[in-house]
Amino acid sequence: MLQELTDIAAIEAAAVAYATALDTRDWETLGALFTDDACWEYSGSGERHCGPDAIVGRIRTGLERIDATHHLNGNHVAAVHGDEAEHTCYYQAQHVRHGLPDGEKFLGGGRYDDRLRRTPDGWRFTHRRITSIWSEGNPAVITS
User: Fold this and answer.
1) CA distance 49 to 93
2) pLDDT tens-digit profile of 76-124?
3) Which of 24, 27, 70, 85 would you label with 63, given CA atoms 20 to 30 Å apart?
4) Whole-angstrom Cα distance, residue 42 to residue 49?
5) Domain of 37: which CATH number?
6) 118 in Cβ contact with 80 (< 8 Å)
7) How far apart are CA 48 and CA 41, in angstroms?
8) How many domains does the chain have?
9) How far is residue 17's CA from residue 33's CA, in Å, rounded to a whole number?
10) One Pfam family, short name please (predicted)?
11) Domain, as residue range, for 98
12) Which of helix, strand or coil describes residue 110?
């Protein structure tokens, strides 16, 4: 039981580290959170990137034009099966881009669905799917 609780805490810490890496633009840490065979996808868009370099490249391209972001995670649920795990959590992500005529903020909420693997360096994502559930504000903050 103690090992399971320790594993769940480490899995939740990986999810929080992902959010922090996005907001601090720490691309090295972000890449290190994924296994070499990991895939990242945005549900409903058909967008899928595999391998840490491709994943970080996609995220970096999307975030570098934005002045600030603030990602929050909650409602974590994790299930550990030996050296493999599933995790899900909700997110709210605030994006700010100064100087846009129709508004400088875009807020989105949704869910991460993850698979992780225990590695010598800790729990790492093997798959992360992002599902957007709602949004408000100016979509040009994240699209233009």
Assistant:
1) 21
2) 999 999 999 999 999 999 999 999 999 999 999 999 999 999 999 999 9
3) 85
4) 9
5) 3.10.450.50
6) no
7) 4
8) 1
9) 8
10) SnoaL_4
11) 2-143
12) strand
